[in-house]
Design brief:
The complex is a heterodimer.
Chain A: H1 4-7, E1 13-19, E2 28-34, E3 37-43, H2 61-65, E4 75-77, E5 88-90, H3 93-110, E6 115-119, H4 125-135, E7 140-141, H5 149-159, E8 167-169, E9 176-180, H6 188-200, E10 204-208, E11 221-223, H7 230-243, H8 249-255, E12 261-263, E13 294-297, E14 302-305, E15 319-320, E16 326-329, H9 330-339, H10 343-350, H11 354-370, E17 373-375, E18 379-380, E19 386-387, E20 390-392, E21 395-399, H12 401-404, H13 409-422, E22 432-434, H14 505-511, E23 519-523, H15 535-542, E24 555-560, E25 572-575, E26 584-586, E27 600-604, H16 617-627, H17 645-651, H18 683-689, E28 693-695, H19 710-718, H20 735-744, H21 755-764, H22 775-778, E29 787-792, E30 817-819, H23 821-826, E31 834-838, E32 843-850, E33 858-862, H24 879-882, E34 894-896, E35 902-904, E36 919-924, E37 953-954
Parallel strand pairs in A: 6-7, 6-23, 9-10, 9-21, 10-11, 23-24, 24-25, 29-33, 30-32
Antiparallel strand pairs in A: 1-2, 2-3, 4-5, 4-25, 8-22, 12-16, 13-14, 15-16, 17-20, 18-19, 26-27, 27-28, 29-36, 30-33, 31-32, 31-36, 34-35
Helix pairs in contact in A: 4-16, 5-13, 7-10, 7-11, 7-13, 10-11, 20-21
Chain B: E1 4-9, H1 18-28, E2 37-38, E3 46-47, E4 51-58, E5 65-72, E6 90-92, E7 99-101, H2 111-115, E8 122-124, E9 129-131, H3 137-140, H4 153-157, E10 163-167, H5 174-181, E11 198-200, H6 220-223
Parallel strand pairs in B: 1-11
Antiparallel strand pairs in B: 1-10, 2-3, 4-5, 6-7, 8-9
The chains are: A alpha/beta, B alpha+beta.
Chain lengths: 964, 243
């Protein structure tokens, strides 16, 4: 021990609270400062999300704050230099804004869709989405399309809610927990806290995953499965659950569309639609599901209105209406669908033994049935029935990208949501629980414009840039069925692409299909590296010129806090702040941090001043919105409305007098209201005094069964969380999908898909989940490329952000390709050998590492450890650049489509990027090849304003000017 | 006599490394700091950590266990690093059993790291002293901290609460109970070092479903007609015999 402690005893010490942003988890943190420098960041014990704990990333925030990769000045690409070379001159913010203002004003006055805004962050969409809509461009999305949109869409179109920000497993009460696929990062600390408590309480944890790492390591049972086959497993489990009668009949009857009668007249125009007694669905404009369907009553043996007094519907059977129409309950159609999906069938596809599949089904079904929870909480359902208790069937699931990032992921996730429903676990104790603002109607109300007329010069967009189609008429296409959006979102190619397709923006803009754009603004997304599929080609596209010598994407603006592979391609770089230097909100209009027991939102408040000339991206948008006179950002006389972002947050209302703003807490003039209320000038202070978080706990009777909870739905309606207070019945059978199918079959009036897409839409818009091989697998010679290759994110790193972090990079300095030893030996590959991994699309040289914790048909690696030389302020000789590698080079962003067309390498329903579908082969690199990764790229140099000093060693001691 | 220690529950450790960097963060600016990093942004970065997580696999596919194993100074009750120290810099505190290094006396000779069978001491090449876990001795007695926070940084950080902290000589402490009730064990006890830190092994929960649990009178298939009576016209004995 030295005298360090006494030396700093006289120093100024402060503790400030804010919200972490070392990943998307949004834990409450306390930042301890010495002489204004960050000395220690710990978890805030009074925060509802992380309750005082913190992870490896959060504990390394210091090294992010003081990273030499920080950008500190606006930068303009030097005239004559190539994109990607990273040659810049520093400019003033005024010049940067003037450049942007002039360019964007011209675009807005002529053709607003020439401006595209895509952001790597999807927890800032309330503001970025508002900006895009106000600008009038449809070309906006966050990264959901290449992350987990299948999870959001598959579940929201089924149960009106989803995993991650909007719901999750109730491990407090569960007895059996099944985690499928890689899901470690959503959500990180709350899930770790919950799994640990769950295990200590004696719960049983099963992990179904090709790889055993992370949370799977502590599972009671690991079920290895082949990637992309989870749908087959789930359908076989559903088969067994139904065959054994292990479904929760009462739950299905009361709360789902399982008993509703479907028209099965094969010739009729309403084939596959629910029989309804009132108006035709074409006239319905509201986004709730009117309750005018029929049941077949067991007692009177006839069709009756759903929920007729004294009636009880058949779930199985085949009936004929008085007019002769043949009908079946939706559940009967599900039973027929899974009849062929036997455990024996699934075993051959998944690699999971038949007896394991049966046992999984029995464990789930028997636990749900026999371990029932009864909470002494009285509640009233939407039909006025009073219940003395809340019942729970304690089987919980969790899944994220492992299931989602396949081109068959939507139906896999529909199958998961249906399984959860059959077990009777939705918004019940021990099962799945919603988080406000969910549940929402199926689908939610937000809609994009319906056609190109929604995009007009100098006018806000005539709808949302992203929405939830309920019907082909909700697609965003022109009269020929061609897409309006640059990413072809909401077109017939990817009708339910509710998060957009960020992974196709650059390719589409480069090719000019559907059109070219002028300016692409990318916030915090490494699209020239680990966030791009087909990375090498995308880099070429970014630097490619047309026949006139113009860049094919003429103006590229990147806002980021760090120098990256992407910033190198920018024409204009805007230096963002770190999370410790900014105001920010985790808004109810967006993806708040709500808990199962009620809505919660939170804020970031700066704890240190901005570094250099860094400016938060939020401020950039407010400034640009004001300069461009976007209506939401100016007064009626055109003058600037908001001083800055904090002012905007306090005073912006969704419409004048709505009382709804970005923050739900401490509204009203004196902070006496919440959810709705007038702007409160002291709102920020009140958040600051309350750990930067607002959390409203619903009364217990509103905390469960919220899809059908009269009290909750009325409360939510009054709080304007939802427009309609109607119950949200679970869609075992999806009429929404059937509408698209009927259109594609030419059996439904109105919009029709282009001919070359008819078969595709008719195939994939199946109202019941089905299993198909991922599209890429079908396009691949699987004899030549026998292995699946997948990635996952290490718990100590978040995307590409953390290789610039001196501490975290010591944990993961370079990555290996993990290979089952049996698989490796077949190729003569030894542990540690340099090998080639090759797909149809490209090849990468890397090092192999034996692992017994991966199923033999899969190889995998950590994502985003590999870096381009010199990027992220690492030396070109850094291990990340020499030995680390990206699998992205092997993954295509496109696949061959019908009739010589190209389609995105994505789920044909949602446009979810099929990251995990790639097939590869591996073989030894020859002895004379360099022992380094391939492909190689030219090293990047530091930009003006970046720390050029390369320290041979460093030691951080806070309060002493950063480094000893 | 008090013996403070960590008890690490491998049953819930997911290998997230929170303990690794929260330790580094607290201590680099703390009384046992600094914790230097060599080549922080170059090839082969390496630095001083008091606590590291090793990950290894046990068994062959598909019966594989992936084990995340956090390791720091075990604060042995018979610490081999102490008697070998030529200057008396390495010492064990009588009052709480924490093994510490007095940087003012340490000459960086590394005898202690050779003597330590667990490899948990790291020489700081720049300060030229031996460094190791102090159990955050500058936190645990700091009365300026709320009592809840008078714990090592790694313990407070750990998201799975896999790191328990307390006096293993107090039979009623949480750590003693955890060791007793969950078969807590020491690393390489055969060395006679009596490590104070213990590990709790993996524990496995199984659900056994008996075949007859699938046979239920209230099986909903009965209601929905999937276990129907045979149709009247199906073949029966009445078709083939008259008795």
């Amino acid at each position: 021990m030295t005298t360090a402690a006494t030396e700093t005893a006289a120093a100024t010490r402060e503790v400030k609270t804010t919200t972490c942003y070392m990943c998307a988890c949004r834990c409450g943190i306390r930042v301890h400062l010495v002489n204004g420098e960050v000395r220690y960041i710990d978890g805030n014990p009074d925060h509802p999300l992380n309750k005082g704990v913190i992870c490896a990333k959060g504990s390394s925030g210091i090294m992010k704050q003081y990273s030499p990769a920080r950008l500190t000045r606006p930068l303009l690409r030097k005239a004559g230099s190539e994109r990607g070379a990273g040659e810049f001159e520093a400019i003033s913010w005024e010049r940067a804004f003037a450049l942007l203002e002039e360019r964007l004003a011209k675009i807005r006055a002529t053709d607003p869709k020439q401006f595209a805004l895509f952001t790597g962050r999807d927890q800032m969409q309330a503001l970025t989405g508002l900006f895009a809509k106000q600008f009038g461009t449809p070309n906006y999305a966050a990264h959901g399309g290449f992350c987990s949109v299948n999870m959001a869409a598959g579940m929201i179109y089924t149960i009106g809610g989803s995993f991650w920000e909007f719901g999750g497993p109730d491990l407090e009460r569960a007895k059996l927990f099944v985690m499928m696929g890689t899901a470690e990062d959503h959500h990180s600390n709350p899930l770790k806290i919950a799994i640990s408590k769950f295990k200590r309480d004696g719960g049983r944890f099963i992990s179904i995953n090709p790889v055993r790492t992370g949370y799977s390591a502590i599972a009671d049972e690991w079920v290895p499965i082949r990637p992309g086959t989870d749908g087959a497993l789930l359908l076989a489990i559903i088969h067994e659950i139904i065959a054994q009668g292990l479904y929760d009949r009462d739950f299905l009857v009361r709360y789902t569309n399982a008993p509703q009668l479907v028209n099965v007249d094969p010739e009729g125009a309403r084939h596959g639609m629910f029989v309804r007694t009132e108006m035709d669905d074409a006239d319905r404009s509201a986004c709730f599901d009117p309750q005018d369907q029929l049941w077949w009553d067991r007692y009177d043996n006839r069709a009756v209105h759903t929920r007729s007094a004294g009636a009880d519907p058949y779930l199985l059977g085949e009936f004929r209406l008085e007019d002769g129409t043949p009908v079946k309950p939706a559940f009967q159609l599900l039973e027929e669908r899974v009849r062929e999906y036997t455990p024996e069938w699934a075993a051959g596809i998944t690699g999971v033994p038949v007896e394991t599949i049966r046992r999984l089904a029995h464990e789930m079904g028997v636990t749900a049935r026999d371990e029932k929870i009864e909470l002494p909480i009285a509640w009233t359902d939407s039909w006025g029935v009073e219940h003395e208790t809340v019942t729970g069937n304690p089987v919980a699931f969790h899944a994220m990208r492992g299931l989602a990032a396949h081109s068959n992921g939507f139906h896999t996730i529909r199958a998961l949501a249906i399984l959860m429903t059959l077990l009777g676990t939705i918004d019940r104790p021990g099962g799945f629980r919603h988080k406000a603002p969910f549940p929402r109607p199926i689908p939610p109300c937000a809609k994009t414009p319906k056609g190109p007329e929604g995009v007009q010069p100098d006018t806000p967009l005539g709808g949302m840039a992203l929405g939830w189609p309920a019907d082909p008429k909700d697609l965003f296409v022109d009269e020929n069925g061609k897409p309006v959006r640059i990413d072809k979102g909401f077109s017939w190619e990817y009708p339910l692409s509710v998060h957009g397709l960020m992974h196709n923006v650059i390719t589409n803009a480069w090719r000019g299909d559907p059109y070219r754009i002028d300016t692409l603004l990318v916030f915090m997304a490494n699209m020239a590296w680990n966030s791009a599929m087909n990375t090498s080609e995308v880099r070429n596209m970014l630097n490619d010129r047309d026949e006139n010598g113009e860049y094919r994407i003429p103006f590229l603006v990147v806002c980021d806090a760090f120098q990256s592979e992407m910033t190198a391609f920018a024409d204009l770089v805007l230096p963002d702040t770190t999370y410790l230097e900014r105001h920010d909100v985790m808004s109810m209009l967006d993806r708040p941090i709500s808990e199962y027991d009620g809505p919660a939102d939170s804020v970031r408040i700066p704890v240190v001043p901005p570094t250099g000339e860094c400016k938060p991206f939020q401020e950039v948008l407010i400034e640009l919105g004001s300069r461009l006179k976007l209506p939401a950002f100016v007064n009626s006389d055109g003058t600037r409305k908001y001083r800055d972002y904090p002012d905007f947050i306090v005073n912006h209302e969704t419409e004048p007098g709505s009382g709804i703003g970005f923050l739900a807490g401490w509204r009203g003039k004196g902070g006496e209201k919440f959810m709705r209320g007038e702007p409160n000038p002291r709102q920020w202070e009140m958040y600051a005094r309350n750990n930067c978080v607002f959390h409203y706990r619903l009364p217990p009777s509103y905390q469960y069964m919220r899809n059908w909870n009269q009290g909750y739905l009325e409360w939510a309606q009054r709080a304007r969380i939802i427009r309609y207070g109607d119950p949200v019945l679970i869609h075992i059978y999806s009429e929404v999908l059937q509408k698209f199918r009927l259109a594609a079959q030419g059996r439904r009036p109105g919009r029709q898909p282009p001919e070359h897409l008819r078969e595709r839409v008719a195939t994939y818009f199946d109202p019941l989940p089905f299993y198909y091989e991922p599209l890429e697998t079908r396009a691949t010679d699987t004899v030549k490329y026998p292995l699946n290759a997948v990635t996952q994110r290490p718990m100590a790193m978040y995307h590409s952000w953390d290789s610039q972090n001196a501490w975290l990079r010591q944990i993961h300095t370079h990555n290996y390709l993990y290979v089952n030893p049996g698989t490796a030996r077949n190729q003569g590959i030894h542990d540690g050998d340099w090998i080639w991994v090759e797909s149809m699309w490209g090849k990468v040289r890397c090092m192999a590492r034996y692992s017994e914790a991966v199923e033999p048909g899969t190889v995998w690696t950590w994502n985003a450890i590999g870096k381009a030389p010199g990027a992220w302020s690492l030396s070109p000789e850094a291990n990340e650049a020499r030995w680390g590698f990206l699998l992205n080079h092997l993954i295509s962003e496109e696949l061959p489509g019908a009739d010589g067309t190209r389609v995105s390498n994505s789920d044909p329903v949602t446009g979810q990027a099929g990251w995990y579908d790639v097939r590869v082969r591996i073989y030894k690199a020859t002895e004379d090849e360099p022992k380094e990764t391939w492909p190689r790229f030219e090293p990047l140099e530091p930009y003006p304003g970046m720390g050029r000093v390369r320290r041979l060693w460093q030691a951080f001691v806070a309060g002493k000017r950063e480094f000893k | 006599m008090t013996q403070l220690a960590l008890v690490i529950d491998l049953n819930v450790c997911v290998g997230c490394h929170a303990c690794v960097t929260s330790c580094k963060e607290w201590n680099t600016s703390g009384a046992a700091g600094y914790l230097s990093d060599d080549r922080p942004y170059d090839a082969d970065p390496t630095g001083c950590f008091f606590n590291r997580v090793q990950t290894f696999e046990v068994g062959a596919f598909p019966d594989t266990q992936t084990v995340h194993f956090p390791k720091s100074c075990l604060h042995c009750e018979e610490p081999p690093c102490v008697p070998v120290c030529p200057t008396g810099a390495s010492y064990k505190r009588a009052e709480d059993g924490i093994v510490l290094v007095d940087y003012d006396k340490c000459i960086g000779c590394k005898y202690c790291s050779w003597a330590c069978p667990y490899g948990v001491r790291e020489l700081d090449e720049h300060q030229k002293v031996m460094k190791k876990c102090t159990l955050c001795v500058d936190r645990i007695y700091d009365e300026k901290l709320p009592e809840r926070e008078r714990k090592p940084a790694c313990v407070l950080a750990c998201p799975t609460n896999a790191r328990l902290y307390g006096d293993i000589h107090d039979p009623d402490s949480q750590v003693s109970q955890a060791i007793r009730e969950n078969a807590g064990y020491q690393l390489m006890p055969e060395w006679g070092t009596h490590p104070a830190n213990h590990y709790l092994p993996r524990r496995k929960t199984v659900i056994r479903i008996h075949a007859d649990e699938l046979q239920r009178a209230d099986n909903p298939l009965k209601i929905d007609g999937k276990l129907p009576k045979p149709a009247l016209k199906e073949p029966s004995l009445d078709d083939v015999t008259s008795w």
